[in-house]
Amino acid sequence: MQKLEIKGGRKISGTIVISGSKNATLPILASTILTNKKIIITNAPILRDVETMVGLLSTMGSTIKLNKKEKKIEIFNQKTLKTFAPYHLLKTMRAGVLVLGPLLAKYGMAKVSLPGGCAIGPRPINLHLDALKKMGANIKIKNGYIVASAKKGLKGCFIKFPKISVGATENILIASCFAKGKTKLRNCALEPEVQDLINFLKKLGCKINRVGKRSIDVTGVEKLKPITYRVIFDRIEAGTYIIAAALTNGRLKITNIDPKVMSTEINLLHKIGVKIIRKKNYVIVSCPKKLKSIHTMTKPYPGLPTDLQAQIMVLMTKAEGISTIRETIFENRFMHVSELRRMGAHIEIRGNKAKIIGKSKLNGAELMATDLRASVSLVLAGLVASNKTIVNRIYHLDRGYENIETKLSNCGAQIRRLK
Ligand code: UD1
């Protein structure tokens, strides 16, 4: 099993080009099930989850090509797709469930594996299923599979999500594009990746209107256009590298981004003391003399993303005084804490709140990665720890960070992959 070895204490300085967003690419790829026109997606991140989604669509019969060098995905659905999404492809990537809505909308049936378990909490899909039922789908769970049909097609209706969910908003948004009549979606997730999916679908020819706060109206269409679409940048990757520079007293230019999309994260880091100069499509991060403590919580966009919680926590171990972070999105997203404690961090957990006692000296250790963002927080900790840190089970990291060791070592980190 591959590991990362990091020798801490080096500044992260230079330039890092941010990749396309994983969380935007996955729903966009799923939505191509709707169309038999040629689609080209550019700025695609070359990540394991993206390869899994490409594999899933290919298994279903799509002619889909991932050009890793050009970061381009070409899709041409020349024939009718199979409406079956097997367990072995969904067990490692929960976003596979995003094919359910488009399959039902396009073919009136789908058999999709229930996604596998997840370290960060139970992650149910009731919101996806309840909304599809409201649109006229008949849904049963059989032998670990969602067996769904809508013989007469899905129909537009009024759906108010009882809880804000990125995945449910995306699944139902895509399904609504081919439903009969108008679908009114309320209490939607507004993450930039959801907006990117909307931009993609609109370019395809779908009729989608943001009609108010967390409200989206979709009118079903029948014909779509061939398009080329550039995926939005990965704001979580960008946030992670800003933190890497701040932690190590480095000076880093982070490019291929739109700082406006991540104002919440940038404003919070400013408050902590990180210096960030914002330009149109890049930021320059420089080292703060002192980091200040904060009291914050994760929230749906435009709040602080849960996907950046673990990385901010590492930064807080270096701040003055006591910080707190409340995790309000997932039940079990403090898996990194026990490993950070083994490195010498002083962190207490009470319910969904972490109390971080600052100015900890971190020592290198051998660590176990548990999920994607927890893994990267351990890499960040390794960058500032004394001696050597080994992060095991980095397959989690490869799901969401493109060439992390190359990007960091090009900026001065001593990091290498052990095979
Ligand atoms: C997406 C992101 C993930 C991010 C998360 C929250 C992708 C591929 N993944 O995950 O990186 O951490 O948003 O920003 O985009 N819930 C239910 N029932 C459902 C669906 C969700 O109760 O049917 C709950 C979840 O358990 C969680 C909360 O809603 O507590 C938010 O989850 P959701 O926004 O759906 O996360 P994902 O779409 O899975």
List keywords for this structure.
419 residues; alpha/beta; UDP-n-acetylglucosamine1-carboxyvinyl-transferase, Chain; 2 domains; 4-stranded mixed beta sheet; 24 strands; globular; binds uridine-diphosphate-N-acetylglucosamine
Q: Please, could you describe this protein's structure?
A:
This protein is of the alpha/beta class and 419 residues long. It has 14 helices and 24 strands. Strand 8 (138-142) and strand 9 form a beta hairpin. Helix 1 (22-31) runs parallel beside helix 2 (48-59), helix 8 (235-247) runs parallel beside helix 12 (372-384) and helix 10 packs parallel to helix 12 (372-384). The radius of gyration is 21 Å and the shape is globular. It binds uridine-diphosphate-N-acetylglucosamine. Residues 23, 26, 94-95, 121, 123-128, 163, 165-168, 189, 193, 305-307, 329-330 line the site of uridine-diphosphate-N-acetylglucosamine.
Strand-pairing-aware structural class:
alpha/beta
Number of helices: 14
Quick one: how many beta strands?
Answer: 24
* Rg, Å, rounded: 21 Å
Count the domains. Answer: 2
> CATH superfamily of the largest domain, called what?
Enolpyruvate transferase domain
Uncertain segments are none
Strand order of the largest sheet: 22-23-1-24
Using the coordinates shown, work out and report the CATH topology of the largest domain: UDP-n-acetylglucosamine1-carboxyvinyl-transferase, Chain
Sheet with most strands: 4 strands, mixed
How would the global form be characterised?
A: globular
CATH architecture name of the largest domain: Alpha-beta prism
